[in-house]
Amino acid sequence: MDEKKIKVLVGKPGLDGHDRGAKVVAMALKDAGMEVIYTGLHQSPEQLVRAAIDEDVDVLGLSVLSGIHIGASKRVIDIMKKEGVKDDIILLVGGTIPTKEDVDKLKSMGVDGVFPTDSSFEDIVDFIKDVVKRKREKTLAESRSL
User: Fold this and answer.
1) Buried b (16+ CB within 10 A) or exposed e, 114-123
2) DSSP string, 37-98
3) Is the pTM higher than 0.90?
4) Cα–Cα distance between 34 and 127 in angstroms, integer?
5) Fold type of domain 7-144
6) How many CA atoms within 13 Å lie on the side-chain side of 113?
7) What is the strand order of the sheet 7-11 is part of?
8) How far is the CA of 52 from the CAs of 45, 48, 83, 129, in angstroms?
9) DSSP state, residue 118
10) Which of 109, 38, 115 is nearest to 76 (CA)?
11) Which of 49, 56, 110, 119 is the most buried if burial means most Cβ atoms within 10 Å?
């Protein structure tokens, strides 16, 4: 059975104008064999979730350097729940996450993975591969039990 390529959407919510990190992470994910869509700067949470749904991605990654990581993530999660895709799309947040408390808060809100600026590409790639594999295995098992 052919393994479906992992599809990731990387987006920059809000007014943050710095996207070098997002572009570098996107390239690392492409180099790891993933299909990556980069939405560009100044995206609203609504635009990001809509693009993730329309593109049928496995992962939505938010790149945040402007300090809006908690608020933007909460809004994205609320929209994902409203659209009924929170359990279908893995949500990651990366960038300037200043404290462990912020990491813990993001995870308790429903963010699946948090990657501060000192995270390695290998850690990000390994996390995505592992969580997507587990999600696909669970979906397959559920479909077989029907």
Assistant:
1) bbbeebeeee
2) EE--SSB-HHHHHHHHHHTT-SEEEEEE-SS-HHHHHHHHHHHHHHHT-TTTSEEEEEE---
3) yes
4) 13
5) Rossmann fold (3.40.50)
6) 20
7) 35-38, 7-11, 59-64, 90-95, 113-116
8) 11, 6, 11, 18
9) T
10) 109
11) 49
Planar angle of CA 5, 51, 1, nearest 5 degrees:
20
Distance of CA 32 to CAs 26, 76, 93, 143, Å?
10, 26, 19, 28
Q: How far apart are CA 136 and CA 133, in angstroms?
A: 5
State how far the alpha carbon of 143 is from the alpha carbons of 100, 137, 146, in Å: 38, 10, 5
Q: How confident is the model at residue 142 (pLDDT cuts 50, 70, 90)?
A: confident
Residue 11: φ, ψ to 5°: -140, 155
Q: What is the pLDDT of residues 40-68, one digit of tens each?
A: 999 999 999 999 999 999 999 999 988 89
Sorted by where each begins, the domain ranges of the chain are 7-144
Put residue 23 in one of left, alpha, beta given phi > 0 → left and psi -120 to 50 → alpha: alpha
pLDDT of 111 > 90? The answer is yes
